[in-house]
Amino acid sequence: NTTSSIQSVRKEEADFSKILTYSYVDSGMARTLPGVSPAELLWAEEIIGLELARRGYKPVATENADMIVTLETEVTGGREKGGFSIGLGTGSYSRSGGSSVGVSTGPIGAGYIEQSTLTIRAVDRSTDELLWVGWIDKLENNKFSQEQFKAKIREIMASFPAS
Fold it and tell me: Is the pLDDT of residue 11 over 50?
């Protein structure tokens, strides 16, 4: 039996008071998870937008945005995976799609559970530097309702710094 954990990392020297605008970009990395409908990924976008607005950020066209926000999902099947570590130093982001944050996972158990990780990233548009990343891991697929899914997105966004 595994429990999901919600974690986030922010770039320490990032000055969020200078970041006023954002653009939500479809990274192409948000796959439909088993048990999560495509509509839920759209709800995620809406909730991320609401949470950013509450923190003082305004949505603008991508080319004018201070930061780019993306959502990514990853399904890990088979052996249970342990938590993963994220190193901000290795964070890279390319507009052609995809980003890497030095994610390492290690198998720690033998239970066969299909699980997912859902990650929200904020990247400085001008420097491509990762500013903040929040994620929830060990989501057991088909085990949560629409309301629970929305609540999880809100929980991830809870640690996003205010502008």
Answer: yes
